[in-house]
Amino acid sequence: MVTLREVSVDELRHLVSERALTGETMLLNMGPQHPSTHGVLRLLLELDGEIVVNCIPDVGFLHTGVEKNMEAKTYQKAEVMTDRLDYLNPIGNNLVYCLAVEKLVGLDVPPRAQAIRVILAELTRIASHLLWLGTSSLDLAAMSTFLYTMREREMILDIFEMCSGQRMMTTYVRPGGLWRDVPVEFEAAVRRVLEVMPRRIDEYERLLTTNELFLDRTRGIGVITAEECVQWGISGPVARAAGLKYDLRKVRPYSGYEQYEFDVPTQSDGDVYSRYRVRVEEMRQSLRIIRQALDKLPYGPVRSNNRKFVPPPRSELGVSMEAVIHHFKLWTEGFMAPKESVYAAIESPRGELGVFLEGDGGPKPYRVHYVTPSFANLQIMPLLTRNHFIADVVGIIGSIDIVLGDCDR
Amino acid sequence: MGLEQKTAQMGVVTTTLEQMVNWARTRSMWPMLFGLACCAIEMMAAQASSYDLSRFGMELMRASPRQSDLMIVAGRVSRKMAPVLRLLYDQMPEPKWVIAMGDCASCGGIFNNYAIVQGVDEVVPVDVYVAGCPPRPEGLIHGILTLHDKVQKEKLTKWA
């Protein structure tokens, strides 16, 4: 049996209000093993009856030391670690890391690779939002949505598997392009998603959007204003639901997002319901982007021709001595990056996902730092939950869509 | 004619108590609703429509360790989480089993560093290891069936 240390209220006095010390309010521990904290989040709740007075998130239960591990690997090999950060957005994690590496060493990316990156990143966004929709409505006791959204998610995971051989941790996006070209079945599979998804999204909306029970649990719950979002550094659907029209795909386009037509859905109420509406609409916009990208998908190489950074194709190895040398150098030593620091950011399903990358002239990064939306968005938990019922806390956690792997790293 | 009527006409079925109890245990093994990281998403996928764990009588994930028989350690266990995990294991009633799902839970996986416990077997006894990063839902189901086989072979003398 594990010996547990008693924690007295006195030790928590820097976190809780005066009323907790006298026993007027109750302290309640929620998590780290709780079905609706979406992972291993621990919340210390201070309660006045059923009303939440204060909510103190305790993170770090999934601290993985990814950033430190990446410093011990070459630039190509460190990428494998990035998938496991935000495990609902693996392609996005790869993409932002590769954008940072490409910026650091000045590497070009062929247009076909960029378009495929966009398609896969948007598919990931849909898959992530589908899982969010399923689990967060499950928290609000809408069981059937989960079964439907997971069904559609499998379609998208099949596409990832088709491209990369892995359902979730793809490491498909590589510095200078992609691992390999997409298979011939790719287009038909994506078209099938494009055909099926709009109907299915309507189906979810029929289940939830006007459902009285769902409305009661979500309207006017966990309200945040646009000003507060700016003050707390909130990004992504949470900020957009409060009326802040900020999307990095529009503000600072990357991977050719400027070529595609799409809207940035916003709402004005800033409550749980608005966040739901924003995410559902985002799925539709993602489908729009995928359709455009697929329609004008250019032909050509998917990897940069710069042999100093990108390994040569397999076919060259048997005929070119130079290719063998490059291949050997890249996979034993890696490539050298200049002693500079760069910052690259993308719009992940949860908000602004950034990478700060510093090289030291050698083949390994000196420092990799992920700026993650889950960590920033989790700060507002005390603000959102204050004066709400304890039952609404689960709905609010669901609505800000945190991934603890992303938050704790 | 249904299976029930057919077997009823067979008359008496003889078996041993050992086999019957083990059979009952494998047919309604309730896992604990306990996800840690990436593997938890695949565990959810295994529960959901496409893979449907309820075929094995396991659709009921219990959020409370007091009501569960099987702990699926789905994901990497950090040093901060390890005592919590052990506490949850201690709170589960006997008989109980543990599946280490994925490379991180089995051996630390790609995270050989200061933060991650190098295999959850340092903390709790593991019955079945499922390889993969993350394992496919089929992989998890195979692990579960392997565990069922193992339970089926358990001896009466070993029951707690």
Secondary structure: elements and pairs:
The complex is a heterodimer of chains A (409) and B (160).
Chain A: H1 18-21, E1 26-30, E2 42-48, E3 51-58, H2 66-70, H3 75-83, H4 90-105, H5 111-139, H6 143-164, E4 173-174, E5 177-178, H7 186-208, H8 212-218, H9 226-232, H10 237-241, H11 248-251, H12 272-295, H13 314-317, H14 321-332, E6 341-348, E7 351-359, E8 365-371, H15 373-378, H16 381-385, H17 390-400, H18 404-408
Antiparallel strand pairs in A: 1-2, 2-3, 4-5, 6-7, 7-8
Chain B: H1 3-9, H2 17-27, H3 38-47, E1 70-74, H4 82-91, E2 97-101, H5 102-107, E3 128-130, H6 137-152
Parallel strand pairs in B: 1-2, 2-3
Characterize the structure shown.
The complex is a heterodimer of chains A (409) and B (160). With 409 residues, chain A is mainly alpha-helical. Chain A is 48% helix and 12% strand. Chain A has a 3-stranded antiparallel sheet with strand order 1-2-3. In chain A, strand 6 and strand 7 form a beta hairpin. In chain A, helix 5 packs antiparallel against helix 12, helix 6 runs antiparallel to helix 7 and helix 7 runs antiparallel to helix 12. The mean pLDDT of chain A is 88. With 160 residues, chain B is mostly helical. Chain B has a 3-stranded parallel sheet. At the A-B interface, helix 2, helix 5, helix 6 and helix 18 of A face helix 3 and helix 4 of B. Chain B: Its cofactor is [4Fe-4S] cluster. Chain B: Belongs to the complex I 20 kDa subunit family. Chain B: It catalyses: a quinone + NADH + 5 H(+)(in) = a quinol + NAD(+) + 4 H(+)(out).
